[in-house]
Amino acid sequence: MELNEYPLVSIIIPFYNCKYVQRAIYSALKQTYRNIEVIVVNDGSTAHLPMIKPLKDNIIYIRKKNGGIASALNEGIRNSTGEYIVWLSSDDLFINTKVET
């Protein structure tokens, strides 16, 4: 089966000044299920932004005014194109088979 024959899954990572955000993004990008888009929503962060810079070519990066986790998640959903949506907290990790399973 071709990659584009599998449904696209949007992994949304809202974050605000979280020092673990890079680890969360890496865990999303390492999924065994390959038809994904990783959407990182910066909810007005001022700290830890350099951690994201090296990953910007592999993610969809959205910056918005601080409004809380729900508003950041909703912004990610609005900008997603996947058939399915998965939420990953910026201080959490996915095991490599999370999306596939």
Q: Residue-averaged pLDDT, rounded?
A: 96
Number of strands: 4
Low-confidence stretches: none
Beta-strand portion reads: 15-25%
**Tell me, what's the shape?**
globular
Give the radius of gyration. 13 Å
**Main beta sheet, described?**
4 strands, parallel
Strand order of the largest sheet: 3-2-1-4
Give the count of helical stretches.
2
Percent helix: 10-25%
Taking the alpha carbons of the first and last residues, their distance comes to: 17 Å
H/E element order: EHEEHE
Structural class: alpha/beta
Give an account of the 3D structure:
- The chain is α/β, with parallel strands linked by helices.
- Helix content is 19%, strand content 24%.
- The protein is built from two helices and four strands.
- It has helices at 21-29, 69-78, and strands at 9-15, 36-43, 60-64, 84-87.
- The chain has a four-stranded parallel beta sheet, with helices on both faces.
- The model has no long low-confidence stretch (mean pLDDT 96).
Overview in brief:
The protein has 101 residues and is α/β, with parallel strands linked by helices. The protein is built from two helices and four strands, in the order E-H-E-E-H-E.
Give the topology, please:
Blueprint: E1 9-15, H1 21-29, E2 36-43, E3 60-64, H2 69-78, E4 84-87
Keywords summarizing the entry:
single chain; 101 residues; alpha/beta; 2 helices; 24% strand; globular
